[in-house]
Amino acid sequence: MIDEIDRKILTLLQSNCRQSIAEIGDAVGLSASACHRRIGILEKDGVIERYAARLNGEKLGFNMTFYVEVTLEGQSEAILSAFEKAALARPEVLECHLMTGIADYLIKVAAPDTKEYERLYRRVIAALPHVSRIQSALVMKTVKRWGGYPPRKA
Amino acid sequence: MIDEIDRKILTLLQSNCRQSIAEIGDAVGLSASACHRRIGILEKDGVIERYAARLNGEKLGFNMTFYVEVTLEGQSEAILSAFEKAALARPEVLECHLMTGIADYLIKVAAPDTKEYERLYRRVIAALPHVSRIQSALVMKTVKRWGGYPPRKA
DNA sequence: GTTGAAAGTAGAAAGTT
DNA sequence: AACTTTCTACTTTCAAC
Q: What is the pTM of this model?
C-alpha cells in the first residue's frame, strides 16, 4: 500500500512541503506527474492530513512552553467528553492528549511570561470543566521539535 | 513589528500553507503582492521556520504514541549535551524537551505495537547516554494536536 | 501598498511501456 | 496499472508605480 518511494516522498514533504513536485520527483526518481499522482493518493487516503507553516514561538512572544498534567474529578464518559470539548475549543491549548498513568490529560500551552501563564493557569486551564488537579512543567529548552515520522516503522 | 494582518496571515498559514497567496491576500484584505512581501519577511525573520506536511501516524502504522520522562545520572553540562546530541540523532525521537520538575527530559516517540515499543524502549531510549530512569506514558487518545499558536499572545 | 508582466508550477489529458 | 510527455491555467515573483 505505502511503498519505499511513498515513504521517501513523505519524508521530503515533512521537512519541506513547498518544494516543487518536479524536485520531489527528481529526488525519488520519478516524473513530476507520477509523483503528483502519488501525493494525491496519500492526501486522499488521509496519510497526509494537512500542510502547515511551523512558527517560532519565541519570535511571536511565546517565551514559555508548558506541559500540564490535568487530573479530573472522575473518568465517566460525561466528564471526559465535557473536558475534551472545552479543551478543543480553547486556542491556548496547543495539544491535548488522554493519557495512561497518574494524570488524565497532558496538555501543552504557551505563554509570553509568567504573569500571562498565571492568567492562563487560572482562567483557562483551571476553568476547564471537572478539573481537580493541575501540575505544570516548564520547558527549559526544546532539543528537538517537529521530528517527522521516520521513513520506516520505528 | 508583527501587526494584526501578519497574525491573520500566520493563522491562515498554520492551518493550511498550500492556499495561494492571492487567497490569503483576499482573506486579510491585501493584494497578493503585499501579502507575498509580508510572508517573505516573516520567513526571513524566522517567524515562519518551515512548511511541513503533517501526517497521520496511524495510517503509517504508528499506532502507539508515548510521552517518556527520562532522568539522567546527573545534570552536568557534559551529561546533558551528550544526551541531547544522541537524542537529536535518533529519528525515533519525535520531540525532546529539557524540563523543570522531577524528570530531566520529556521525549515523544511512536511505535507500531507493544513489541516494537519494547525494542524502542530497550535499544533506543535506554541506550541514550547517561539515562538512569525512564517512565513511559501511553497516549490513549489525542484530543487536539497541531494547535497553532493563537493569533494574539495567550 | 498596488498593478501588471514574466517565469515557473500544478493539474489534467493525452499516449507509452 | 503505473509512468511519461505534453499542454493549459494558475501561481509566484519581481519589476515599476
A: 0.95
